[in-house]
Specification:
single chain; alpha/beta; Rossmann fold; nine-stranded mixed β-sheet; two-stranded antiparallel sheet; about 40% helix; about 20% strand; elongated
Length: about 400
Amino acid sequence: MATAVNANPPILDARQGKGPQVVNPPITQNNPIVPTKLALFGETGSGKTVTACLYAAAVSKEFHGGAPVWGTDPELGMQFPKRTIFAPEKIEFVQRTVPTFKAMLQDMRDAERAGACVWMVELSKIWIELLQTVRKNCGNNWGNQLNSMWGEYVAQFLNSKMHCIALGRVGDVVEEIRDDKGEITKEKIRDKMKAGGSNDFGYEPHLVLRMSLEKKPRRKAGALLEGEGRMIHRADVLKDRTWALNGNVIRWSDKAGYKPGGYAAVWQSLRPHFAEVQATMGFVTLDTTQDSSGLISDDGNSEYYQIRQRKEILSAEMHCTMDSLWGGTAQAAKQMRMKVFEHIFGFKSKEAADAAPLEKIERGVRILQAFEKRCKSDESILGGTDLNILANLDIHIREFDEGSAEESELPF
């Protein structure tokens, strides 16, 4: 069923300096910057890249002291803002033109390690490459593998400490409509971002802008001259998880040139979303010789699918061991499980332990298995005080971290 659309959404006309005035939220050591996650999609030339770069420049200058901005750009569109926007602002812009999904994931990790405050990616070619690679290598299981691999990207995008901006082309969402005669036709009900397949990546970021172009006719001697005039970039806010801009239409005039601080119009328009998020919480060449086949094993299972399976098995083993040692619903047992989780993993909940990296879960399971084995030979350990239990647990933590622990069997 088609979703109802607000026929008269609020319009923020950044060309005239109108719209909500929001003071930059206070950022302190105890109130760090919460990264924003944006998606912009639209037709070629609609202003996706320029709008994203203006927002990135604003965030870098206003909140990160001009820290680097990083772009993964197989379509080579970011080299122009590199010169026209980031150079005047004296912001280092690192552009990578890797066209594969595997390389994109590595690029995101490289950007964070290099101290970039914003990471941008053009997803269209990367999505197509991943789709072709998985279909070629995964046989009938390609759909599950694709979802698993794409899910890892979505998690990395959302969990990154950088502000992340995804750019993509526009695609159609269609719905089958049955008329009174029982005949079925397909009808377009809305636009979507052309990446993520049926999952529609546009649902994942916190703020989603549908970009398009309008043309403002030139007026001469009181007459409107159609076909002449300046281009207007229009952004329809399709989703804002903070509700600050939900349903708004924002317009920015195209510029003949750029001067430092020229990001102001875009920044003033999108700053309400940024503020609400804070309140919550050289020469480039295109290398086309690689694909993402290295992520898929001979049996057609992706590296990410295998890691997820291992994590699920280890998580189940970890919880079984915990229940064996401190099972039950009594308050004392619950508190002891919480203390042990925090002692081994650094956090208290089993949900946080489940979400930990594979290596951290495996470390915890091995420590717990060694401790359980020792308790079976000395039942008095579990009968001691909480401090005594944690002290005995420290023995196995130290042995594992020093590499002197006895190798235990894992259920693989």
